[in-house]
Amino acid sequence: MTTPKEIVRKTLRFERPERVAMRLAPDFANDFAWIGMDPSVDARPLGAGRHTDEWGTVWNNIGVCNLGEACEFPLADWENFNRMNIPDVEDPKRWRQADEAAKTIDRDKFILGAGISIYERVHFLRGLENTWMDIYLEPENLKKLIALLVDMNLKNIRKLAAYGVDGYVFCDDWGLQNKLMIDPAQWREFWFPAYREIYTAAHAAGMATFLHSCGYITDILGDLIEAGLDAILMDQQLNMGLEPLSHFAGRVTFVCPVDIQSVMPRNDLGEIRRYCHTMFEKLATPEGGFIADFYGDPKGAGHTPEAVQAMCEEFELLRYRVPQTK
Fold this sequence. Notes:
single chain; 37% helix; alpha/beta; 8-stranded parallel β-sheet; 11 strands
């Protein structure tokens, strides 16, 4: 029998998987397992109140969602760069839990390892406004910070490879509702080389590459694919449109729940079920390229348990079909 790992690999490689790969809510299908640092150097504090992460960024959370908002920045002044606390990726204490997990993890599943964001971590350290201004006023310092984060990812990839990790994933939300946060040309100058270096290293270590990125990212999706991205975790699709996104079908694997902003919160179970099939028809190909996903903070996003159940049940009905020739 084909294992979950093989299903995911066939999906990513467009090799006609026997079924749709899934990473759904508890009590539903899940073809994935996780292993990695604990705590991660890219951890963002969870829970209500004010918290400080390892880098020295202060977060505030009003208690509605899992994640809060970065509000005080240790690198607000570039003069602090050499005094900034830089967490050690290779600290053996971070890998003790991974050492234990490696003994019992289900090797039949596709094992994901978490990476380190190279845009979000920049603005968690500098602040968004400073980050955007750095493109014009402090380009060399900005490149130095990005290079530091790339180096941390390369060390992380080497560590994860020893555990037999199959896929490498991290989060960088690049989009506003209707456009990229920065000019695409600036993205290509500052961040494209960084993604390419990380993805090249991951591929050399035998890992597929995954990126979570929300908002309107159509303008750089082709560039990410060129850099070596295998799968895009896309929680919102309708602010870009399924039809425009369908032009990337067959070039990248889409990892998607039902649109978390425009469909799920309305709690129309019929609409949710229909959307599962519409999205699949637009973004998948007969050879693969679609993984059914679940948004990890449904309460924070206003998704009812009934809506989540309807989505997961319908995703489990999806089937790849070879187009009928006329």
